[in-house]
Structures are given as structure tokens and as C-alpha cells.
Amino acid sequence: QSAEKEGYDHYMMKEIHEQPETFRRVMTGRLHEDAVTFKEFTLTDEQIQNWQHIDIVACGTAYHSGLVGKSILEETLQLPVNVEVASEFRYRNPRLDAHSLVILISQSGETADTLEALREAKQRGATTIAITNVVGSAISREADQVLYLWAGPEISVASTKAYTAMLIALYLLAFYLGDRAGRFNLADHKDLLEALAKLPDQAESLLTEAKKEEIRQHSQALIDADHLFYIGRGSDWAVAQEGALKIKEISYIHAEAYAAGELKHGTLALVTDGTPFVAIALQEKTFEKTLSNVNEVVARKGRVLCLLKEGHDKISDDLDKRIFIPDCLDMVAPILAAIPLQLLAYYTAEARGCDIDQPRNLAKSVTVE
Ligand code: G6P
User: Which among 117, 126, 228, 349 is placed 20 to 30 Å from 342, CA to CA?
Assistant: First the structure.
């Protein structure tokens, strides 16, 4: 078995390291200099132009990828996008018809609630697109269109490379559909395509021994925590939710993600001397606002580890605990941000002696409803 882990102690670390290669694979043949193509799709322009609303339905980590995908799809298709966990969506009598697009996201393609949501959507006349990693899975067989992640097998229960591949897949899909709908001219947005093309190399730079050691050291401050808060705004909040899930799954620390602007409406009451926070401050638009939330926590003696973009170091000199991701367009920051948060969860779990690849009570694929 250790041979299968290629020298890593756990599948999770192996899969974290596979991300640069995974990024290349999900983009190969799809991302071009001034276009995105999906040869596997059989959608007509008329079908695409006919959609009036979009639902993204998924569970767990896949759901978190949908939260990031929402804003980019809204922008490129100029349609309202609802993101929902499958176990809620399928029981609430969703309003779907021939003007609906439902995107189902599932690494395994076998999650029972997501599969049932797909069946419900089809029955009501929606077009369905599945984003999945497993060829021949139930969801891939039943969806109208399938976008494969080509991330290779993911063994660790906590999802890593499939999650970041889902994000890239959603961006590619948003560009592709927006362009075909005539609402987003990709030729005018070459910078976005270039930003995607740079991701594999940027991901490599987050996986050097030095970078990993830096993050391992930050994890040492978390190992005795009972509670941990992740905060951010906009797509940083989506990143925070996945970061909190990751550490909860494998280290068993109670972690909660909060929209930074909501802190004052409740969570701030829990901040006392030493309460640990991870703040995600990667989006230019909300950077200053998130920093002021960080200061509110610091003023109450909370401890904050900030995830920032290189180049933002000057503004945040007063914050002593910082992790940097490479400078990149705000749009792609969630993809790069995932990597240090995965490592933070990994090293925290390792120091706590947890079973990283097989966390208690959890399964890789949940095939019961
Ligand atoms: C389980 C796994 C999670 C995963 C979720 C959805 O809870 O432990 O890691 O995110 O199922 O799985 P799917 O295969 O549908 O993406």
C-alpha cells in the first residue's frame, strides 16, 4: 500500500501534491489561448440561450465548489444561480422546467442525494450537466451532459484534488456557456484564460518543502484548539467554508466558517483571549473590509492567521501570522487558496494523531439517503 502512496505517509498528501498535474489534465484540450471548448457536449446554441435560471446541486466539498462557481456563472451567463445541498434541494419541490439548467457536482458520481436530485431535475424537464470524476458512475450515466474532471482516483476521504479540479471545471464551463450564449465574449477576456493557464505552476510553488514547513508551523498553534473560526467575504467566504470543513473532517476540531461581515451579528461574542481564527482576505473588492473584521477580532485578543496574496504584505504588516499565495487574478484565488488550507488541516490532524485518510464516521461516498 505504501507503494501506492508513492512515498507519502497518506493518500491525502499524495493527492494534495497531484494538484498541479490535475489542473493540467482538467484544462487539456479545453482551454485555448482565446477560447474554451468542450468536444464532449452536445448542446445547441438555442438550448443554451433558452435557460433562464441555473441551480447548482451537490453535497459536502462539491457543494463548496458550487459556491465559488455561482458568481462566475452569474457573470458570464447573466442569469440567477442558486446553489444548494442536494439533500435540501430534492425535498423542497424546486421550480424547474425546460428553461432550467441544473449542474450536479459529484466527485464519485454516486452520492445518493445528488443522484436523486438529478433524476428529479430531469423529470421536470431541466437540462442537466454533471461534473464528476468517475467515468461510468451513476450520475455520469444519467445526466444529459458530462464534464469529467480527469483528476485520477481520489482515495482519501477528505477531498482535495477533486475540489480544485471542480473549481477549474466550473470556470471553464462558465466561460464556455457564456461565450456560446453570446453574453460573454471570451476573446475580450484573454487575461482570464491566461490566469487559468498559470495555475499549475503557481500550485507547484505552494507545494515546496519550505512552503509546507511554513504551514506546518502555523498548524502547531491550532493543535490544542477546541473551536476554530474561518472568515471571509464573497468567494473568500466560500473558501473559508471549505477550509473549515477540511479541518473538521480530519482533525476533529470544531470549525465554523462565517461571512466576515456577519461576525458582529453573533460570533464576536465567542471571541476571548486566544480564540483562533483563519481569515481569508484575497479579494481586492472586500480586502479592506475583511481586514477591519480581523482587527475587531484582534482587539478582543483573538489570534488570527491571515491568508493573503503576495503583494498585500505591506498593508497587513501588523498581522504577524500570514500565509501568502502567489499574486493572481482575484477570480482564480480560491483555487490557489485551497492548497494551504488543505495543508493546514493535514498538519493539524497529523499532530493530533488522527487517522487522516479514514476519518471516523465518514465515508468517501455516501450512497444512502
Ligand atoms: C462524502 C465525502 C466528501 C464529499 C461528499 C460528496 O461526504 O466524505 O469528501 O465531498 O461525500 O461526495 P461526491 O462524491 O458527491 O463529491
Answer: 117
Buried (b) or exposed (e) across 330-354, using 16+ Cβ within 10 A?
bbbbbbbbbbbbbbbbbbbbbebeb
What is the distance between the alpha carbons of residues 345 and 361, in angstroms, rounded to a whole number? 18
pLDDT in tens, 34-78: 999 999 999 999 999 999 999 999 999 999 999 999 999 999 999
Vertex 214, ends 208 and 220: CA angle to 5°? 135
Q: Note the helical H segments in the chain.
A: 11-17, 19-27, 45-50, 60-77, 86-89, 112-123, 138-142, 161-180, 190-205, 209-219, 235-251, 287-299, 333-351
Give CA angle at 268 (85, 289), nearest 5°: 80
Is-catalytic flag, 198?
A: no
Angle at 227 between CA 223 and CA 230, to 5 degrees: 95
Protein residue whose Cα sits closest to atom 15 of ligand 1 = 106
pLDDT per residue as tens digits for the range 145-199: 999 999 999 999 999 999 999 999 999 999 999 999 999 999 999 999 999 999 9
Give exposure, 160-186, as e/b (b: 16+ Cβ within 10 Å). Answer: bbbbbbbbbbbbbbbbbbbbbbeebeb
Could you tell me the strand order of the sheet in which 276-280 lies?
254-259, 227-232, 276-280, 303-309, 322-325
Residue with cell 457536482: 105
Q: Of the residues 5, 198, 289, 364, which is catalytic?
A: 364
Distance between Cα 357 and ligand 1 center (Å): 13
The confidence score (pLDDT) of residue 312 equals 78
Residues β-bridged to residue 308: 324
Question: Could you tell me which of 222, 259, 256, 165 has the C-alpha nearest to residue 352?
Answer: 222
* 275/67 Cα distance (integer angstroms): 27
> How is residue 66 written as a grid cell?
458550487
**CA 185 – CA 283 distance, rounded (Å):** 23
- Closest of 348, 16, 58 to residue 155, by C-alpha: 16
Residue 367 Cβ contacting ligand 1 at under 6 Å: no
Ligand 1: which residue has its CA nearest to atom 3? 60
Cα(238)–Cα(84) distance, integer angstroms = 13
